[in-house]
Amino acid sequence: MDWLEKRVPPLMVAGAFALLMALLAQPVPPIGVAQAWRLVMALVLLLVGLGICLAGVASFRLAQTTVNPLAPEQATALVQSGIYRYTRNPMYLGFALVLLAWAALLAAPLSLLGVAGFVLYLDRLQIAPEERALAELFGSEYAGYCQRVRRWL
Q1: Is the CA virtual torsion 30, 33, 34, 39 positive or negative?
Q2: Is residue 110 situated within a structural domain?
Q3: Are 8 and 60 spatial neighbours (Cβ–Cβ below 8 Å)?
Q4: Can you tell me where the transmembrane regions are (predicted)?
Q5: How far is the C-alpha of 121 from the C-alpha of 118, rounded, in Å?
Q6: For all residues of the chain together, what is the average pLDDT?
Q7: Residues 5/103, Cβ–Cβ less than 8 Å
Q8: CB 111 within 8 A of CB 53
Q9: Mean pLDDT of 62-83
């Protein structure tokens, strides 16, 4: 599956998994959580996810480096400030939280498989090749950063 590495933009991957989640939710009755609670949970997850994602984009823009996930070798700076002090992949973490919000709205336990699939897909086919490119670009500085900050949380 190496041929899939960095081929599909992560936002499109998230969209595909969101569709899969909706399909998985169809044959299953919703769990017995009141709709109001599901909406509140979904809204909180959505806002936190979008906030984390946008904080990652803003940090990249401030550092004047690329946000293109298909070309990490074009990075001109190793961003370690802001949200990047807590997670090496805030944009992807944000996408995962948005998918969790979608799962809360769907209220179907099977839809959580979509979130897990998204995380596994990105971890293997997007993040791993990005990390190889960043290690090549930034060497020991990146290795130290990886030791200090977790990949997801």
Answers
A1: negative
A2: yes
A3: no
A4: 37-60, 92-122
A5: 5
A6: 95
A7: no
A8: no
A9: 97
